[in-house]
Design a protein that fits this description.
With about 280 residues, the protein is mainly β. The protein folds into 2 domains: about 5-160, Immunoglobulin-like (Sandwich), CATH 2.60.40.1930; about 175-275, Immunoglobulins (Immunoglobulin-like), CATH 2.60.40.10. Helices cover about 10% and strands about 45% of the residues. β17 (about 220-225) and β18 (about 230) form a beta hairpin.
């Protein structure tokens, strides 16, 4: 095949993947390598800042990924850098025992992964990533620089047919597999800090010997339905309890991770945050 035909074939493949991904994204929410401009005060955020995770650039930092497409069901390296005005950032603070937390989740909240990449000397972060199902995924980089917490996000497209899953109904009980269930206690509200506590049971018996996972008894990721705004939550080191600020009323998806029986386990909840009147 000559060079012209090779280029034409490659362009056709990219067009097919992009077209499928855009169709998927239209069904489940905004897509693209989003770089949002600072906005006026909204959602409880000061002027000049965006909600965590909604933009690839904020507060002088940018998330730049090597690719924005991936083939379905094939593991491949995913690489990205965090840049400031002077180039790649290489000095990150340790938070929850890691210098970088990467969350990957499809825009309908399916396929949740919590990963920890390795950083090269040039500031490039790399991790092996496999996405078994087609769709539009959101990749969050959660990190701390100079004692300031940041969450930047970008989209990753996996071509192919898929039907977005509906948001599960709110429920206080979640199945974590292998006989583990988790019960949510506490009410998410806006306008005040919400305390959320979780009770883990195994075969019906309350688990009281949870070991530390990432420096605490568990790790919680909270995402807003619709735009996948990423909520910063604060873990209690001794209890499976978290404090969260819900910026707006409405539905959120919570992903709780804890370690027991030699494995990290995930329990997912849908909650409705109500406005305090």
């Amino acid at each position: 095949m000559n060079a012209f035909r090779k280029l034409a074939a490659y362009a056709a493949v990219l067009a097919a993947v992009f077209g499928a991904s855009m169709a998927i994204g239209a069904a489940v929410g905004p897509t693209g390598l989003a770089i949002a401009e600072p906005t006026e005060e909204h959602d409880g955020m000061p002027e000049g800042m965006t909600m965590p995770g909604l933009a690839a650039a904020d507060d002088g930092l940018r998330l730049v990924a090597d690719v924005d497409t991936q083939r379905q069901g094939i593991e491949r390296p995913y690489r990205f850098r965090i840049l400031d005005d002077e180039g790649p950032v290489t000095d990150f603070d340790v938070e929850h025992t890691k210098r970088m937390h990467v969350i990957v989740v499809r825009r309908d909240f399916a396929g949740f992964q919590h990963l920890h990449p390795e950083m090269r000397s040039d500031g490039t972060w790399e991790l092996p990533l496999a996405l078994d199902d087609a769709g539009t995924y959101r990749v969050f980089a959660d990190f701390v620089v100079d004692d300031e917490k940041h969450t930047l996000g970008t989209d990753l497209f996996v071509g192919g047919d898929h039907t977005p899953e509906p948001l599960p109904e709110p429920d206080r009980l979640a199945d974590a597999g292998d006989g583990y269930t988790v019960e949510l206690e506490g009410d998410p509200v806006t306008g005040a800090e919400s305390e959320l506590e979780f009770v883990v049971r195994h075969d019906g018996e309350v688990v009281t010997d949870l070991p530390e996972y990432l420096g605490a008894r568990g790790h919680l990721v909270a995402l807003r339905d619709g735009d996948l705004a990423y909520l910063h939550v604060h873990a209690d080191e001794e209890r499976l309890s978290f404090e969260a600020d819900f910026p707006t009323a409405g539905a959120y998806r919570l992903f709780l991770q804890f370690q027991h029986g030699g494995e990290v386990r995930t329990a997912a909840f849908t909650v409705d945050a109500e406005e305090i009147r």
